[in-house]
Write a structure and sequence with these properties.
By secondary structure, the chain is mainly α. The chain contains ten helices and no strands. About 75% of the residues lie in helices and about 0% in strands. The termini are far apart.
Amino acid sequence: MARDADLTRQRIMDAALEEFSNKGRAGARVESIAQRAGVSVRMLYVYFGNKDGLYEAVLREHVTQRASALSDVSVPLTDFTARHFAELRQDESFVRLVMWEGLTTSATLPPVSEEERSERYAEILDYLKGRRDAGELDPSLDTEMALLAVIALASFPSAFGQIVHMATGLRPADPAFVERYETFLRDLAHRLAPQAPPSQE
């Protein structure tokens, strides 16, 4: 029975992930989630209380876990943003959920699991500071702004595919775009390193 309950809960969560990532918190319908999961609306309420409870459970499980898994901080700086981009390409629902969350976040509706997720970003910030101290980043670079730039660069194609297409004529999933973009991200990381002084010879 416990296994059946776990499987039912997971089916609801999977269906809700698709609904919330496509329509956001306000646009999602519990009837659609229940139908996709193959359960009654009443069963959905038994497990999660209401739509808000389900939304928070989806973000807590999917967004928090994904944030914790993103970008191995042991990789070289030149691969870091490209790796982050590759990870997000495999899970665009994560990008969409975070975008919807950003549109609805307020003083009365703060981000889900904010403290835990902030700790992960603090780890990445420490990584960037370590790379700066190791001479891989210009010492004058604002590492907090660099962190935001890494996140923006890695997530932009998944978040704004229409702009990618208008600007390049390619879709974000096109192999030609992926190859060019990853090359660009690695090249950019090289260019952020301190420049060697010109030879005096």
